[in-house]
Batch of 2 targets.
Target 1
Amino acid sequence: MPLARLVWSPALLRYDFGPGHPMSPARLDLTMRLADELGLLTSRDLEVVSVPPAPDVVLETVHDADYVAAVRAAAAGTPAPERGLGTEDDPVFPGMHDAAARLVAGSVDVADAVWDGRVLHGLNIAGGMHHAHRGVASGFCIYNDAAAAIRRLLDAGAERVAYVDLDAHHGDGVEAEFWDDPRVLTVSVHQDGSTLFPGTGRASDVGGPGAEGFAANVPLPPRTTSAGWLRAFDAVVPALLREFRPQVIVSQHGADAHARDPLSDLRVGVDALRQAARVLHDLAHELADGRWVALGGGGYAVVDVVPLVWSSLLAEALHAPLDLAQPLPPAWREHVAQVSGLSAARYLGIETADWRRWATGYDPADDVDRAVLAARKAVFPLWGLDPYHD
């Protein structure tokens, strides 16, 4: 049995809002080229599959039928700005419905494979479109593949699914879809919504009636560094997942919390994002018999961040983590220079500076600690956990 399943084909590059749009398909192309040069795609532990666009019956598990029809119409040349289709964030393009539906099919495919026991880990780096809601496109997201994957798991019999969102932007669409559903725990670690799109994800947002405590939000101040970000992640995510005891973990690995990303104000490095992925991987083995679905997401530093973060994610899923000091392949660096005119990174990254675990004590003078405590105070008592002490 392969260890991991990756959805990939050049058809996924058709999710393309056009020249100048931040979500360039080049980020996927460069990631897969780097993964190939690193030997990850030829690993005996990996199967790579392609998928056709998801049919409407799958899309309509998380989207209204009239919205799906509106996406089709927009792709044919009839924008619907009131639906978020034909806006600056989500301009329409030919083939948009099929391109977006293919992302959904990829995440549903790997969720099926993980739940059925055909693989332990499933990855769709083209996925993670977490802002789309039932009836509206938002934030570069037409259809919500993460929500569709979770819905498929529930329909297949899963009773507890944990969703962890590491994107710099709040995972609002997924949270909204399962707001009242105690079968799904959503945890989002993001930049404070008062300073960044989509403006949601307050610490006090903890879930709807009958599902109080099943949404958790950790809104962090701008300029939070790797050390603070890891402290926040460590202070909230593992404890909640251990209480919830999910049967499968679905995680979104947006790379836009990185310091070089142009669309956020966080200051997180490649190594910190790698460390968080490793913790989620370990928690999947500890709590969910290894069942882990890992998705992409945001990330707009196309050359020097996204390929490094997502290649590291794939390596982690293959139980073959990359060495930070490993030189990146010359052929890949040359390709980057040819297609972008930019100099690619020589190494994966540098080691994250020391960071303090929550058990070392709360510092009321620290902005990150205050944000973490607010998140813990909002949700931990609902799980019988102490917000002040581990």
Target 2
Amino acid sequence: MDQLMNLLGGFGDVLTPINLLYVVLGAVMGTAVGVLPGLGSAMAVALLLPLTFTLDPLAALIMFAGVYFGGLFGDSIAGILMNTPGNSTAIAGAFEGHRMAKAGRAPQALATSAIGAFTGGILATILVVFFAPTLAEMATKFGPGEYFALAVFAFVATSAVVSDSAIKGLATLAIGLAVATIGIDQVSGAQRFTFGVMELFDGVSIVVLTVALLALGEVIYVASRVGRPEDRSLIASKGRPFLSRAEFKEALPAWLRGTAFGVPFGVIPAGGAEVPTFLAYGTERKLDRRRPNPMFGKGAIRGVAGPEAAGNATAGTAMGALLALGLPTSATAAVLLAAFQQYGMQPGPLLFERSGPLVWALLASLFIGMIVLLILNLPFAPLWARLLNIPKPYLYAGISVLACFGVYASTGSLVDQMLLLGLGLLAFAMRRFDFPLAPVLIAVILGPLAESSLREAMNNSENNPLTLISTPITITLYILLVFAIVWSAVTKLRARSGEDLVK
């Protein structure tokens, strides 16, 4: 009951003309960026981050909420109409979605995607409303050892478990941890890797890092591929932008099953929604084989419904993990954590006590944002698709200018501009050789927490390392980590053996 009263108070704060405008702006910006291949919600939030310093915290955060889910809504449009998913989380839904489009059912595929994203996001957000405060209360029992174990779990899960190559994942994790050490040591006050440059005494700005990795690096990568032939063409979307009763009835079980897959993965530091979306896709495909007239391979509506619901459900509970634990479970969540810190707020157990009205207003804005996104996407998806016709030189040149001006406006430092260029080139190299970016962001965000927790735990125990595994919570986290590593290794070995058999 307390949660409902707090949520109603949040709706009261959000339901003002100016705040509703920010929700709509965030939804529009997120969808527009999400439609463009290779970008997605993480880049949208990163580009928006340096432009919100003049806004009050509530306005900025509810705009971020619109961008957060808007990017996921937009990701699928390019995948369905062009077979080029805007982000990796939209790959599974694009398999059958593009087949539906080629069969003349593009409007129905887009409607299935939009309603599935809405269903998964709404149900997951409802769970966050009721369980995030409880989770935050449980997290108050966390001490330095528990926070260090949580950070280690996030590091290894996002680098060694999720990445295709554990070596590449751990290498990028090391890069992130190295960047996190730049600046003044919190304990001793000593300078670390600043080379006497005063602008580096406070470390590398998270704004510079996120914009460089997610925006400038992608721009340079796309520029390096200009002139290469592309065999993908945009399929026009004409017809009724809604589902018939029979189509809705067929998709409904898949939406619910997809939501069930996505909800638990949102609180696991696994780097995104790729795993639950493919699990949902695989489940629907297995169930389809038992039907008298299997539809997979011909444009199965359930093959779109399940993955789309799973992706947004994961995003919804990821927001809960971010608010209650201060734990970013994806690259987008890591950028959102930086947005909170920009306004002097630290997500975690005490956030609901210290900034309760702001948090409940943010949760209320999630509901409003998803309703706005459903209204924007059902009838107007074909209009969003026209963004794919913008010539890449103009589009990415504009992104570059916006990124540089945004960083300069937020810091006013030429050193940060040079860092932006250097980190952008590093991100290009990582993108070129298929190194994951998420571990870098997670390491930079959680690195200081891991370091301070480790030092505090050692100081409190007279440097006894056993204190790091002395409580049920830390033991459970490390057991789960070992299980995740073993499961990932077995899965990858099976996949490799299957490829060898095919060859």
